[in-house]
Amino acid sequence: MIEIVIAEDQTMLRDALATLLSLESDIAVAGTAATGREALDLVRRHTPAVLVNDIEMPGLTGLELAAQLRRDGARTRVLIVTTFDRPGYLRRALEAGVSGYLLKDTPSAELAEAVRRVAAGERVIAPGLAEQAWSEADPLTDTERRLLRLAEAGMDSPAIAEAEGLARGTVRNYLHSAISKLGAANRIEAARLARERGWL
Question: In what residue span(s) does the HTH luxR-type domain sit (predicted)?
Fold first, then answer.
């Protein structure tokens, strides 16, 4: 029996995934989570074979969650199921150590088979995305990406500095660096460009 945990912040989709995968005779759902933190707790508690999770979730993103599990040395393998079909997201997912990356329009039979293949140690990537993943390198550092997300959410430099425990000048330097790398006019445009390319 392949034990899995499902992490998805949209209740209807989370329930649908759990119901569909529970119908498979060789897959058992150990638990479901609405946030990245809840998913991390469930994985640490149950040590499932596979974590099926989205990228955008409250608390920890799916990519941050995958990276944390890798740092933990967890045996659980990660299968991302997302709407993000941009190669930048796939590249970051692979760098975070995920074993699978599928889109949410994948048929349920293919999803179940992907769970089996990931549990068996294989890598499963959505058709058409793999060859694009390395076409354009992500120029942003983790800190630049984090600060751009806060700027995108409407926070100004003083608020970002307070939230991150950084000096205001340091925040300005990081944001200026990100803006320059992306060839943007300002932080909001930089965040938009980064998100469009799958780097945010």
Answer: 133-198
